[in-house]
Specification:
Blueprint: E1 9-14, E2 17-22, E3 28-33, E4 36-37, E5 55-56, E6 62-64, E7 67-70, E8 73-76, E9 86-88, E10 98-102, E11 106-112, E12 123-132, E13 135-144, E14 150-152, E15 155-156, E16 159-160, E17 171-173, E18 176-183, E19 188-195, E20 207-208, E21 215-221, E22 229-234, E23 240-245, E24 251-257, E25 271-277, H1 283-286, E26 291-293, E27 298-308
Antiparallel strand pairs: 1-2, 2-3, 3-4, 5-15, 6-9, 7-8, 10-11, 11-12, 12-13, 13-27, 14-26, 16-25, 17-20, 17-22, 18-19, 18-21, 21-24, 22-23, 23-27, 24-25
């Protein structure tokens, strides 16, 4: 079955917000405030460009050579990024999820990760997208339905925008004080995390995105008083799209789609992804912030998006 041809689409509304969520990959197809887009979108039934909006699990980002060891057992996953020799973004972003519940402002979907080559762990995922008058709240949970401990990580490939403002006219502010160094050929960790202060990667104060290219994992997020770390994409008039994460999503991968790198976002050219992640790339090998789900135990985390007026 071509799951990308699955055209299930769930419309959510609350106050001045409107969203659409796909049945494939539990993907956030769109989010709008007063009709102005806060995310990139794609045609229903088509493959989302650059994995836009999709859920990345049971690991986000990359596993080097598809190989890892856990609990004294060696595993070898299928290589799904052949050009770089990595296993990328897990198993659930291109499969049809099961609808659990849908109301005017909320949709809940679930999926069994399933057993795969190199993956003997039984994990069930649930993702809820809910609109409130304050914006979007995404709640994710994972349950170990097997009888052995299971490694786990999760991410969301969320693209953000501020209406129709070109990315080069926007500024970016990140609540993150370190970045993980990556080697450029395979985009795998190459050395420890380093402080961003005083470098080109320092976005702790708003910085122009003109001609900036990023494909970078950031961490050391600093939460506000409500426990949420906020990352802000602002237009020239001061209006902004804010992506927030709770402490379970203590990493963000910031990625710029760019025609200069043969990765243009259709009909937009340059575009920006801010991807909440529970762990950095290749966490199955480094162990950094890797979650371990005991049999019968569950994990839950949340993130969301909100409009900020000028």
């Amino acid at each position: 079955m071509d799951t990308m041809a699955d055209e299930r689409n769930y419309v959510l509304t609350s106050g001045r917000y409107r969203a659409e969520v796909a049945g494939v990959g539990a993907g956030l197809r769109s989010l709008e405030f007063d009709g102005a887009p806060m995310t990139e979108t794609w045609e229903l039934g088509k493959k989302p460009p650059l994995s836009a909006g999709l859920v990345l699990a049971p690991w986000p980002n990359r596993v080097a050579d598809g190989k890892f060891s856990f609990g004294g057992v060696d595993h070898e996953l299928d290589i799904t990024e052949p050009a770089r020799g990595n296993a990328s973004h897990g198993f659930v972003r291109r499969v049809a999820w099961t609808l659990v519940d849908h109301s005017d402002s909320r949709v809940e979907q679930s999926v069994d990760v399933g057993l795969h080559k190199g993956w003997p762990y039984r994990i069930t995922l649930t993702v809820t997208h809910e609109l409130t008058d304050d914006g979007l709240v995404v709640t994710a949970s994972a349950t170990n339905a097997g009888d052995v401990d299971a490694p786990f990580g999760m991410g969301f490939h969320s693209f953000v925008r501020v209406g129709d403002v070109p990315l080069d006219e926007c500024t970016l502010e990140l609540s993150a004080g370190t970045r993980l160094q990556l080697e450029p050929d395979r985009m795998l960790p190459h050395g420890p995390s380093v402080p961003t202060a005083g470098t080109d990667y320092d976005f702790t104060t708003a910085k122009s995105l003109k001609d900036v290219w990023l494909d970078t994992p950031f961490s050391a997020e600093v939460p506000d008083e409500d426990g949420k770390a906020r990352h802000v994409l602002s237009g020239p008039d001061g209006a902004a799209t804010v992506l927030w994460t709770d402490r379970e999503f203590d990493w963000i991968q910031v990625f710029t789609a760019d025609p200069k790198n043969d990765q243009a976002y259709p009909d937009r050219g340059r575009a920006l992804a801010i991807e909440p992640m529970t762990c950095p790339p290749d966490a199955f090998n480094s162990g950094i912030d890797l979650l371990v789900l005991e049999p019968g135990k569950s994990w839950t985390g949340s993130w969301g998006m909100e409009h900020r007026a000028a």
